Amino acid sequence: MKPYYETIAGSIFCGDALGVLKSMDDCSVQCCITSPPYWGLRDYGNDSQLGLEKTPEEYVGKMVEVFRAVRRVLKDNGTVWLNLGDSYAGNCSRSSTGRQGMGDEREGIFTKTGYGLKPKDLVGIPWRVAFALQSDGWYLRQDIIWHKPNPMPESVTDRCTKSHEYIFLLSKNAKYYYNNEAIKEPVKEVSLKRSEYGWNSDRPSTKNASMGGNGIHTEKMGTRFVNPNGRNKRSVWTVTTKPYKEAHFATYPIALIEPCILAGTDKGDTILDPFFGAGTTGVAAYKHDRKFVGIELNPEYCEIAKQRIEQELSQKKLPGF
């Protein structure tokens, strides 16, 4: 299948995800990073789109089908990083995830129903999809919380305002490529000082504790508890949302998927995004000297993604390939 757009950084295919995936070679990509259309959120104006299925069960079934095709093109040591948000059953004109569009005519009212669902029920779409993929053979390795410090306001008084989404780490096999060193978090200075000099505690005396000059027990933490080169990344990622106005809908921020790129790939590897949207995955891949394959159903978004990639290439912030 001929790409809609091809450059040294990667390729964009304009078409249905399943159709394009069938044309790709086995084990041809190292990693998949993507955020599919959420269920019952928005009409993208294409009969082949995902997200407007009548029930969660139908949506989950289609997601399993797409990611079964992804598994074929993924290398044996590859990973998938899947971003999904949740929503509530009933007649909904807005999502509680903060990923809704900008209020255009396609942001309509969708009736969200399904087996056992009552109005106001949290649907649980992310976990429904995750468990279905697990049952289909994927290894469900991690649920990562995307904490959004600037969530969309909600006019609700009987529950909290939602300020998180999920990123699921899935692997094709039990052993897979994962570079934990590349995404280590810096150790706070106070932790390093505690490791070097000990720390004061008003707790009762314990083993390896001694009395300090002020009569308070001082416990030695030891360097084995604190690595000065950084700590293993935690599973809650705080990243501010940043709408991309040209796309007419909110895209996930580059800062959110950079850890996925760094942990899941090496320089020169190819990253797949079967729901390419405005091309954020491609831009982030190029910034870190990776290649990309993007698949997008909507020609309008293909053009937006193309323009973003070309702009990034023209700026030449990092060496090309």
Descriptive notes:
With 321 residues, this protein is an alpha/beta fold. The protein has helices at 17-22, 56-73, 125-135, 189-197, 254-264, 280-287, 299-315, and strands at residues 5-7, 10-14, 29-34, 74-84, 90-92, 110-112, 139-147, 164-171, 199-201, 209-211, 217-219, 236-238, 270-273, 291-296. The chain folds into two domains: 5-185 and 232-315, Vaccinia Virus protein VP39 (Rossmann fold), CATH 3.40.50; 186-230, no CATH class. The protein has seven helices and 14 strands. Strands 1-2-14-13-3-4-8-7-12 form a nine-stranded mixed sheet. Strands 9-11-10 form a three-stranded antiparallel sheet. α5 packs across α6 and α6 packs parallel to α7. It is globular, with a radius of gyration of 22 Å.
Kindly report the spatial arrangement of strands forming the biggest sheet: 1-2-14-13-3-4-8-7-12
Helix percent band: 10-25%
End-to-end Cα distance: 23 Å
Give the total of domains.
Answer: 2
Q: Briefly note the structural class of the backbone.
A: alpha/beta
Q: State mean pLDDT (0 to 100 scale).
A: 83
Sheet having the most strands: 9 strands, mixed
Strand content: 15-25%
> From the coordinates shown, what is the CATH architecture of the largest domain?
3-Layer(aba) Sandwich
CATH topology of the largest domain: Rossmann fold
Low-confidence stretches: 93-109, 199-212, 216-224
What is the count of DSSP helices, taking H or I runs of 4+ residues? 7
CATH class of the largest domain: Alpha Beta
CATH homologous superfamily name of the largest domain?
A: Vaccinia Virus protein VP39
How many β-strands, per DSSP? Answer: 14
Radius of gyration, in angstroms, nearest whole number? 22 Å
Give the SSE order as H and E letters: EEHEHEEEHEEHEEEEHEHEH
3D shape: globular
